Amino acid sequence: ALSKPLDEAFSLWEQLLEHPGVPQVRSPEQTLSSLQLLAALYRLQGKPIQALESFLLLRSLCRRLGDNLGVANSLCQITRILLQLQCPSQAQVNL
Questions:
Q1: CA nearest 64: which of 20, 18, 3, 31?
Q2: Which of 31, 29, 38, 45 is nearest to 77 (CA)?
Q3: What average pLDDT values come out for the chain (95 residues) when binned by 10 residues?
Q4: Residue 39 and residue 89: Cα distance in Å, rounded?
Q5: Could you tell me the sign of the dihedral formed by the alpha carbons of 55, 14, 89, 48, in that order?
Q6: 71-93 burial by CB neighbour count: b if 16+ within 10 A, else e?
Q7: What is the C-alpha to C-alpha distance for residues 78 and 3, in angstroms, rounded to an integer?
Q8: Distance CA 43, CA 25 (A)
Q9: CA 12 to chain CA centroid, nearest Å
Q10: What is the residue-averaged pLDDT of the chain?
């Protein structure tokens, strides 16, 4: 029940980012922060798969915006989660 609002937010972000190109948002920086916060909240709730999916959305948006530092940070977080899930071969692919 606690993650229902997060799941709804994730679904909305996923719909917004399913189309190619940069989404029409008021503030790309705020959108990046919101996705980072979403992933962090999933991690705090002990939901690594949802956190992973959120970081994948974040990586996608960072790539579209040309934010190389954001892409690198997302990849580090994705790799960290994959290693925690004991998926070293998948983690290596991200590096």
A1: 20
A2: 38
A3: 87 89 85 93 94 95 94 94 91 80
A4: 22
A5: positive
A6: bebbbebbbbbbeeeeeeeebee
A7: 20
A8: 25
A9: 13
A10: 91
pTM (2 d.p.): 0.89
CA–CA gap between residue 60 and residue 3 (Å, rounded): 23
User: Nearest CA to 83 among 95, 72, 73?
Assistant: 95
Q: How many other C-beta atoms are found inside a 10 Å radius of the C-beta of residue 55? A: 27
How many C-beta neighbours within 10 Å does residue 27 have?
Answer: 9
Neighbour count for residue 19 (Cβ, 10 Å): 8
**Kind and range of the H or E element at 30?**
helix 28-44
* DSSP at 22: -
Whole-number Å distance between alpha carbons of 27 and 85:
33
